[in-house]
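Ex. 9. Protein: TOG domain-containing protein.
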Amino acid sequence: MALRSLDNALPVAIERPKKQAKVVAVSQNQKQPDCVVNDENKAPLLTGDAPVDYIPSKNLEAIADPDIKIQGLVGGLESKDWLEVCRSLNDTRRFALFHSALLLPILDKVLLVIVKSMKNPRSALCKTSVMASADIFKAFGDELFESPNSDAFDNVLLQLLLKASQDKKFVCEEANKALNAMVESMTPLPLLHKLHTYVKHSNMRIRAKAAISISHSVSKMELDGMKEFGLLSFVQIAVNLLNDRLPEAREAARSIVVSVYEALTKNEEEKQETWQNFCQSNLPAIHAQAIVKIVSS
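Predicted structure tokens for TOG domain-containing protein:
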């Protein structure tokens, strides 16, 4: 029997070489980013030898040579180097707490720079500026209502309400602390005149933050102070917030009502009757019923 020609045999399968994984070489000299943030709700991790210090107010110390240091403060705050701005903001905090007389003449300029830093997308710079605003509130209080600081303070207040309303927890918590420091450091009446416009803001989160600050301010007031602002004005603010979308705004509205009720009926024997008469005399029936129900429940 003749042998089968090898030419008709099945071809031998040739094994293809496996692809090698590509390795990208990273030069050791390649520049690393200044700030690495994997989660916007966490503090940024800074590389290199220049971390940002978030120093609690109680740990700040006085400046050794404040008369000399104050001369370069505004220049440092306006630097193009963000780390230098952060260092200058911490110096601003020290001036506010320990050398406020030196800071006062340039306070309006400092506040404008703080607003600019709050708008910066870099979280570390934003947080440091928010901390600086809190220390300025503690140091100067009602002086921020006076010219030329008043307009600058308005801008700071708006930015704090915005920062306290955002999703970036790292900055949001600090902004809430600053708003609390503001309420604790300032006379309620002039502060309420600044805050009350924001409870009608189109942004529901800003409305809620403004409402919370108003409720804290109202809780500090006596009846005479409330009457100066307007008892009915407080109740109307509460009426507008009772059906707000955010529960924080609604809770703040109830807190405002309770504060007004307690002040108005403090020396009254028939507290509920006094309150009911006030509400029914000044509000439409449906609103009066809702307000009366808050303190009777």
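Check your answer against this statement. Confidence is low (pLDDT under 50) at residues 3-14, 21-50.
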